[in-house]
Design a protein that fits this description.
By secondary structure, this protein is an alpha+beta fold. 49% of the residues lie in helices and 24% in strands. The protein folds into 4 domains: 7-67, no CATH class; 71-175, Tetrahydropterin Synthase, Chain A (2-Layer Sandwich); 188-227; 230-267, no CATH class. A hairpin with a 5-residue loop joins strand 6 and strand 7.
């Protein structure tokens, strides 16, 4: 089968056009950004960051794509406490590159900036911070403070390196088994001691309340006894006798037969 001579150049032109179009266009996905490398001019373009969407570039230039959304990486570290004991610590790091400085990041640090900058910074900060605390502090009371200090130390290290550090989270702390058991025993003993002190304080307060109540009653009785003279009692008795005498119920009233001269009221039945 003979192919017409004019078909060959047409096919060649079509392939060239397709190649140029394929190498001259770039689509950047959501959450990503591009850095342009100009092969025949100034190299990396540090003045402009290409946002998501469709872009046309010269076929001899190269577009490098970076994730610019917040990213998370996990790191397991073995560090030493203030008294030289091995501590295993699991942390996650939240970060993202500085969008406006993406060209500088690509030019100075490269695409593997996570391994070059972030991971060494986190490890260095963690060793520095954990080395200030005892295993007991790391395991219990100072965990939140340690997490914040690691974040602040890491942030200082990566400052000016075109990276935005959002957070460092300490997810797990593993101590040697013997140390962990000793700390847990001590914490239980401290809790029991606090509970015992609370019970003692409660008992002392109850005893004080009862004492004050008893003193109040005794004082009231003294005042009452001092106010009840024999004349007052006789007067009250006479008043009660008169009221009972007016009652329709059958009764016998003996006046002055009591030892103190008070009337005695007897039921008539």
């Amino acid at each position: 089968m003979n192919i017409p001579k004019f078909i060959v150049p047409i096919v060649a032109v079509v392939f060239i056009v397709i190649y140029i179009l394929a190498t001259s266009t770039k689509t950047i996905d959501s959450g990503k950004a591009g850095v342009l490398y100009r092969k025949f001019s100034n190299g990396v373009d540090t003045t402009h960051t290409y946002s998501e969407g469709f872009h046309i570039i010269a076929p001899w230039n190269t577009m490098f794509i970076y994730e610019v959304r917040q990213q998370e990486i996990f790191e397991k570290m073995a560090v030493l406490s203030s008294n030289g004991l091995d501590i295993k610590l699991d942390a996650s790091i939240w970060f993202q590159p500085d969008f406006s400085k993406l060209g500088n990041l690509h030019q100075e640090k490269g695409e593997n900036y996570i391994e070059r900058i972030i991971m060494p910074a986190v490890r260095s900060a963690t060793r520095s911070v954990v080395g200030r605390y005892t295993p007991e502090q790391i395991y219990s009371s100072k965990r939140d403070a340690i997490q914040q200090e690691i974040f602040e130390e890491t942030k200082k290290i990566v400052a000016g390196q075109y990276i935005q550090l959002n957070s460092v989270l300490v997810r797990d702390v593993t101590l040697p088994t013997t140390i962990k058991e000793a700390i847990e025993r001590k914490l239980r003993q401290e809790q029991e001691s606090l509970e015992y002190e609370f019970r003692l304080e409660k008992a002392e307060k109850e005893a004080e309340r009862q004492r004050i109540e008893a003193e109040g009653k005794a004082t009231a009785n003294k005042l009452l006894n001092a106010s009840l003279s024999s004349n007052i009692l006789k007067e009250k008795g006479i008043e009660a006798t008169l009221k009972l005498a007016e009652s329709q119920n059958s009764k016998v009233i003996v006046i002055g037969s009591g030892g103190d001269g008070m009337p005695i009221i007897l039921n008539g039945n």
